[in-house]
Specification:
It comes from Xaviernesmea oryzae. This is MFS transporter. It holds the Pfam family HNH_5. The chain has 2 domains: 8-76 and 164-176, no CATH class; 83-152, DNA Binding (I), subunit A (Orthogonal Bundle). Helices cover 21% and strands 22% of the residues. The protein is built from 6 helices and 6 strands; from the N terminus they run ββαββαββαααα. The chain has helices spanning 32-40, 83-89, 127-133, 138-141, 154-161, 174-177, and strands spanning 12-15, 29-30, 44-56, 59-69, 103-107, 122-126. The strands form 2 sheets. Strands 2-1-4-3 form a 4-stranded mixed sheet. A two-stranded antiparallel ribbon has the order 5-6. A hairpin with a 2-residue loop joins strand 3 and strand 4 (59-69). It is elongated, with a radius of gyration of 21 Å.
């Protein structure tokens, strides 16, 4: 079946050469155009396809739904210190009250008291808790994070990312997304 395909529709799941997604959160996806380009540049192997196809006057092909890189991309050993990664480490919850609304981040030891902007001193916090704590030390504010802030590994972030599946998961992706998780007895 040949159809008109919008640029946002029918993305391809991108796996590293070891058949694991390049990223779980956000899930490593390419537009169908990028996936087809990678096929023609011989950079990927197609593992699964959609029923839909694209055509030109001289060629047609089914759209890839899962592709695997031919060359292994070495994942970063140390995740970047970003707002998003702090939220992901803390599972998108305020470390003081558990809310997932209006998140920002808080310096456990305030900067005005010598606290630094590091993995070990920053936690996700909702705006009301952040305002309530202000520039006070945890003991002064009687506010302690539910978990001690720590420098996560890439694996920590991948594991947390699996807790937040995307809104859309195509059935052809399922065999490739969670095969490396521990099975329950």
């Amino acid at each position: 079946m040949t159809i008109a395909v919008s640029p946002q529709a029918l993305p391809a799941l991108v796996l590293n050469a070891d058949y694991r997604p390049l990223s779980y959160y956000p899930l490593s996806l390419w537009s169908w155009q990028d996936a087809i380009k990678a096929v023609f540049l011989d950079r990927v192997v197609i593992l699964a396809e959609y029923d839909q196809q694209v055509s030109s006057p001289s060629f047609s092909m089914r759209l890839p739904s899962v592709v695997c890189l031919k060359s292994y991309v070495q994942p970063s050993r140390h995740p970047a210190f970003t707002r998003f990664n702090v939220f992901l480490r803390d599972k998108f919850e305020c470390q003081y009250c558990g809310s997932s609304e209006d998140l920002t981040f808080d310096h456990v030891i305030p900067r005005c008291c010598g606290g630094q902007t590091t993995w070990e001193n920053v936690v996700a916090a909702c705006s009301p808790c952040n305002l309530r704590k202000g520039g006070k030390m945890p003991r002064q504010a009687s506010m302690f994070p539910s978990q001690k802030p720590y420098h996560p590994t890439v694996q920590d972030l991948h594991n947390n990312g699996r807790l937040f599946p995307p809104n859309y998961l195509h059935e052809s992706w399922m065999d490739y997304l969670y095969w490396d998780t521990e099975l329950q007895p």
